[in-house]
Write a structure and sequence with these properties.
The chain has eight helices and 14 strands. It is α+β, with helices and mostly antiparallel strands.
């Protein structure tokens, strides 16, 4: 059974007038826990703080960090899902003044992905659901994930481990629950996320650390044709690290040396 805290106290219910429930008015973080520690906590907290500033949700970051550390010590091994909502509000979109944010911390087991995902690579499903362009929300891990829900409902075949998502103009953006990189002529590229998409924690860590491993990294728009022309394609997130992409529709890729280098880097970043 999941361990759940609401505002720092064990609890399994929230108010029916919580704006996170009514409007998706809030943010969340999915945090890997090993031996009671959270290796990427600083990046999660920085993204959460920046998101709350953009949404004008007051945040006591020190309190959140203290609760997460206490929760992680109780959990020891698994996944923490932290949700910060604007709190209760009556009917209407206008945010209440003042807001009383609600912190919901929930545990789950670490997902058990097949080892072959990392070793041999995964097949990527080409989703038809498109991401809407909304610069005000671009990069945020906000609570409204209906685009991802629709995209993930497009396939049932277990041969596909992830789905490719493009925006309404057709640009490659991300996976349903992952960020995407391509390799072309030895250079590492990842899509710009200034119009839509989630700026993932592992993506951020790899962008920061890859140049120290001798890799040239560029953040730029990636077309579907550029994706198909890539030498290597890989996915990443903060729970599984890096997966090579083996196939998309009729296109196949090898598991190349840059992907293997990034896999090793991701494993280092996830170790306590």
């Amino acid at each position: 059974m999941s361990l759940i805290w609401v505002n720092g106290q064990p609890q399994t219910t929230v108010s029916v007038v919580d704006r996170g429930l009514a409007y998706g008015d809030g943010l969340f973080e999915t945090i890997r826990v090993q031996q009671g520690q959270m290796p990427l906590l600083a990046l999660h907290c920085a993204r959460l703080e920046a998101g709350c500033q953009r949404l004008l949700i007051p945040l006591d970051l020190a309190l959140v960090q203290a609760e997460l550390r206490a929760f992680a010590q109780t959990l020891q091994m698994g996944v923490i899902k932290l949700m910060v909502t604007r709190g209760d509000g009556m009917r209407g979109y206008a945010p209440p003044e003042p807001s009383s944010p609600r912190r919901i911390v929930q545990s789950a087991n670490l997902p058990q992905y097949p080892a072959e995902h990392a070793e041999r690579g995964v097949s990527l499903f080409a989703c038809q659901t498109r991401l809407a362009l909304q610069p005000a929300l671009a990069g945020l891990k906000h609570l409204n994930r209906l685009e991802q829900v629709l995209a993930r409902s497009e396939w049932r075949d277990p041969q596909y481990a992830e789905g490719l998502m493009r925006d309404s103009d057709g640009w490659v953006i991300e996976g349903v629950f992952s960020n995407l990189f391509i390799v072309r002529d030895g250079c590492l590229y990842t899509p710009e996320l200034n119009q839509c998409g989630v700026a993932g924690i592992m993506r951020q860590a790899l962008l920061s650390q890859a140049p120290q491993r001798g890799l040239t990294v560029k953040v730029a728009p990636i077309s579907y044709d550029a994706l198909l022309a890539a030498d290597e394609v890989l996915l990443c997130n903060s729970l599984y690290g890096v997966w090579p992409v083996r196939t998309l529709c009729d296109r196949t890729w090898p598991v190349g040396p840059v992907t293997r280098k990034l896999q090793a880097l991701a494993q280092e970043l996830m170790v306590v």
